[in-house]
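Slide 14.
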Amino acid sequence: MIIGIDPHPGHYTSAALELFGKLAEWRTFPNTPAALEEFLSWLESWAEVQVAVEGPTQTFFTQWCTHLLAEGYPVVPVATQRVVERRLRAAGGKTDGRDAILVAQALLAEPDLPPLTQPDWVRALQELTRTRKALAATLKGQRMRLQDTREPTVRHALENVIDTLEAQVQALGQEIEQRVKELAPRLLQLVGVGGIIAATLLSEVADITRFASPDRFAAYCGAAPQPWQSSASQRVRVNPRGNRRLNWVLHLITRTRLRVDPTSQALVARKRQEGKTHREALRVLKTAIARQLYRVLRTLAPLFVKPDTIPH
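Slide 15: predicted structure.
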């Protein structure tokens, strides 16, 4: 049985599909401890279960994800882009129940999607990196607002808010840097990989051993090139699917290496000489970076089975 879950902060809609795609049942559970127990009992009514979730690492789903893994249920992340593509092909509108069915269908269509494992330190890094990113975005917005403010009382209030946000963003950044140094200092030796990028990479990958090859990891990052042919026209397009936070990591590393890394600069120059556009050459570089990150993360594989690697 494939259980597809469309999670939202207040409730989770679940659809149970049999292996040939027939809908057996769908239900909605509130995001409460009591509903979690009811959901686990519901899962026990099926003989063999795989759980497919759209975005299982979202903060509001963390408790349920942890319990599912602890109970031995395989949890398979399904990228939002996959759900959107299936919804557009089916052309029938959007409801939570329908999205839960589409999540399950995505796993039925791609049974090799890697399952998630989540040691304790992964959840800690996720909370740290995502909170810092959210606060940094708020800080940027308040700075922009301050530039357009002339009222002295309002300016004073905004300046106090900005000072507080700056201090908290810096404090979280220092904590993230320290944890990455303790966990995976080798990542910090790579060109373009700082503490925030390394922490985001580690927390979003969760378990590198679930990817059988560098190409599968690149595909999960949205960095695997896709051939596109129409009659005599043949080209390679960007892959819009995959984990967007990891794609953001690859984008930042690529930008840094284009500025400071001679090897990356030479690769892009060589691809331009071969007739590729600048954008196509950057895609080649991004894929190469994804493969390098995969090889380094594979050397860290033992960490993914030791939940208490980072002290709390």
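Speaker note: The CA atoms of residues 132 and 170 lie 9 Å apart.
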